[in-house]
């Protein structure tokens, strides 16, 4: 399995679109043995008017060299304190299902059939089935941003997976990935990510709804910008009535490092300085308000809290007792 760098992430996005019929042919993940052999990994818990279920989509390999913005010695020390040895890191890809009496909402969709990081991805539909949810039962999808590990699972065989769902994404991110001039100016290896985003948008047609920051997209669910990772990267604040949660998406890519060093950005951030500002703001808000958080790349099932610790922050996994 190849560790993830920005270049092979972009190239994987390009080759992954081939499985969608956007470029030269490639073997779909399901045919290449990438269909998960293990039972779905899931965790569900009450969240006021909602029930939230984390569904594990796979584990992506990373490299320590992806991270910068702090002294290398500080990065090494933070990783060592987290028990990380050597250059290899890994992070999960988590998706989240929200259910109420009258709503079935999916937040992000994992990689789907994209053949990017090796075997073991594309677990979302199996996880939904284990939760008793068919794709046609989903009535809303909230995409926090348009990177492949968040939208790849929205299409299969070139068509929309969720036939009855609205697809919501921030108007800023939609505008960025839809813009032909942005695509033309992007490096050649990044063209596939634009193609994938545009293909997903087209697949949902008139069920695609770009929304402005601060929009309440469902009862108690508000889309808020946390820009920098992508121009329109968003978090989802969920007020369930008796409990609040913020799904922070890729505000953190590797929690053990970036809580200790919030200024440490990654090669995947479109604007690392802005991403660091957004990260510090989210950490401060979550710690001050005692918010429960969920995150795409935090240790499965991805729930916990950011707490202050000796002038920095620390991620504490949640207890749902």
How would the blueprint of this fold be written?
Blueprint: H1 6-16, E1 42-47, E2 50-63, E3 67-68, H2 72-81, E4 88-99, E5 104-107, H3 124-130, E6 140-143, H4 148-151, E7 155-156, E8 159-160, E9 166-170, H5 171-178, H6 180-185, H7 191-204, E10 208-211, E11 215-218, E12 221-225, E13 234-239, E14 244-247, H8 255-258, E15 265-266, H9 272-289, E16 292-294, E17 303-309, E18 312-317
Parallel strand pairs: 5-6, 6-9, 9-10, 14-16
Antiparallel strand pairs: 1-2, 2-4, 3-15, 4-5, 7-8, 11-12, 12-13, 13-14, 16-17, 17-18
Mean of residue pLDDT values = 87
Helical coverage, percent range: 25-40%
List unreliable stretches of 5+ residues.
Answer: 1-8, 10-36
Strand order of the largest sheet: 1-2-4-5-6-9-10
What's the CATH first level?
Alpha Beta
State Rg: 18 Å
Number of strands: 18
Count of domain modules:
1
Q: In percent, how much strand structure appears in the residues?
A: 25-35%
- The CATH H-level superfamily is Ribonuclease Z/Hydroxyacylglutathione hydrolase-like
Written as H for each helix and E for each strand, in order along the chain, the element string is HEEEHEEHEHEEEHHHEEEEEHEHEEE
Number of helices: 9
Q: Name the shape in a single word.
A: globular
CATH topology: Metallo-beta-lactamase, Chain A
The second-level CATH architecture is 4-Layer Sandwich
Largest sheet: 7 strands, mixed
Fold and architecture overview:
- The chain is an alpha+beta fold and 321 residues long.
- It has a single domain, classed as Ribonuclease Z/Hydroxyacylglutathione hydrolase-like (Metallo-beta-lactamase, Chain A), CATH 3.60.15.
- It contains nine helices and 18 strands.
- The strands form four sheets. The protein has a seven-stranded mixed β-sheet.
- Helix 1 (6-16) crosses helix 7.
- The longest helix has 18 residues, at 272-289.
- It is globular.
